[in-house]
Amino acid sequence: xxxxxxxxxxxxxxxxxxxxxxLFEGFLKVAPxxxxxxxxxxxxxxxxGPAVFIILIxxxxxxxxAVFTEFTLHPPxxxxxxxxxxxxxxxxxxxxxxFKGVMLAAQFMNRASEARHxx
Length: 119
Ligand SMILES: [Zn+2]
Fold this sequence. Notes:
This protein is mainly alpha-helical. The chain has one domain (6-114). Helix content is 54%, strand content 0%. The chain contains three helices and no strands. It has helices spanning 6-11, 49-73, 77-109. Helix 2 (49-73) packs antiparallel against helix 3. The radius of gyration is 18 Å and the shape is elongated. The site of zinc ion (ZN) has 9 residues, from loops.
């Protein structure tokens, strides 16, 4: 069996080692290990990495969309609120799992868990 691309596997929420097992056991909770190949995810920690990228991407999309809408359509403020508040939530939550999967896969690929302070 050939190894999958770890970044694509992480993007899909799959194990970066085998591409078969699940990387997450909840929406964002990382599984302790892969149920298919036994890869250890106990030291996996993406920290604030995914949130930083998502803040930048969602912030750009929502701010650009709100400004564009305001200057082209001039809607009342409540229209902005019912469009852009849910859009912010949907974009943020929609990107969180794939971004966390990619960051954990990159960490797994580069064996970044070996560089910890407690070692
Ligand atoms: Zn696996």
